[in-house]
Amino acid sequence: MSVTPLSKPETEILTPKKRGIQYVFFFGGGKAEGNGKMKDELGGKGAGLAEMTNAGLPVPPGFTIQTEACREYMRTSGVSEEIHSQMLAALEHLEKLQGQKLGKGENPLLVSVRSGAKFSMPGMMDTILNLGLNDESVKSLARKSSNERFAYDSYRRLIQMFGNVVLDISKHEFDEVFDGQKKKRGVKLDTELTAEDLQEIIAQYKQVVRKHAGRDFPQVPIEQLAMARDAVFRSWNNDRAKVYRRINNISDDLGTAVNVQAMVFGNMGETSGTGVGFTRNPANGAKEFYGEFLMNAQGEDVVAGIRTPVPINELQKQMPQVYDQLREITSRLEKHYRDVQDFEFTIQDGKLYMLQTRNGKRTGRAAVRIAIDMVNERLIKPEEAIFRVDPNQIYDLLVPKLDESKGNVEVLARGLPASPGAAVGQIVFTANDAVAFAGTGASKKPVILVRGETTPEDIHGMEVAAGILTSRGGMTSHAAVVTRGMGKCCVAGAGDVEVDEKKKEMRVGAVTLKEGDWLSLDGTTGRVIKGRLGTVPASPDDPDLKTLMGWSEPFRKLGVRANADIPRDAIQARAFGAEGIGLCRTEHMFFAEDRIPHMQAMILARTVEERKAALDKLLPMQRADFEGVFRAMDGFPVTIRLLDPPLHEFLPRREELMVDIAKLEIQDSNSPKLKKNRELLRRVEELHEINPMLGHRGCRLGITYPEISEMQVRAIFEAAVNVSKEGVKVIPEIMIPLVSMFKEMANQGSIVRRVAAQVFKEKDATVAYLTGTMIELPRACTVADEIATEAEFFSFGTNDLTQTTYGFSRDDIGKFLPSYIERGILKHDPFATIDTEGVGQLMKMAVEKGRKGRSNVKLGICGEHGGDPASVEFCHQIGLNYVSCSPFRVLTARLAAAQAGASDQLKGEGGRTK
Amino acid sequence: MSVTPLSKPETEILTPKKRGIQYVFFFGGGKAEGNGKMKDELGGKGAGLAEMTNAGLPVPPGFTIQTEACREYMRTSGVSEEIHSQMLAALEHLEKLQGQKLGKGENPLLVSVRSGAKFSMPGMMDTILNLGLNDESVKSLARKSSNERFAYDSYRRLIQMFGNVVLDISKHEFDEVFDGQKKKRGVKLDTELTAEDLQEIIAQYKQVVRKHAGRDFPQVPIEQLAMARDAVFRSWNNDRAKVYRRINNISDDLGTAVNVQAMVFGNMGETSGTGVGFTRNPANGAKEFYGEFLMNAQGEDVVAGIRTPVPINELQKQMPQVYDQLREITSRLEKHYRDVQDFEFTIQDGKLYMLQTRNGKRTGRAAVRIAIDMVNERLIKPEEAIFRVDPNQIYDLLVPKLDESKGNVEVLARGLPASPGAAVGQIVFTANDAVAFAGTGASKKPVILVRGETTPEDIHGMEVAAGILTSRGGMTSHAAVVTRGMGKCCVAGAGDVEVDEKKKEMRVGAVTLKEGDWLSLDGTTGRVIKGRLGTVPASPDDPDLKTLMGWSEPFRKLGVRANADIPRDAIQARAFGAEGIGLCRTEHMFFAEDRIPHMQAMILARTVEERKAALDKLLPMQRADFEGVFRAMDGFPVTIRLLDPPLHEFLPRREELMVDIAKLEIQDSNSPKLKKNRELLRRVEELHEINPMLGHRGCRLGITYPEISEMQVRAIFEAAVNVSKEGVKVIPEIMIPLVSMFKEMANQGSIVRRVAAQVFKEKDATVAYLTGTMIELPRACTVADEIATEAEFFSFGTNDLTQTTYGFSRDDIGKFLPSYIERGILKHDPFATIDTEGVGQLMKMAVEKGRKGRSNVKLGICGEHGGDPASVEFCHQIGLNYVSCSPFRVLTARLAAAQAGASDQLKGEGGRTK
Question: pTM for the complete prediction?
Answer without folding.
Answer: 0.79
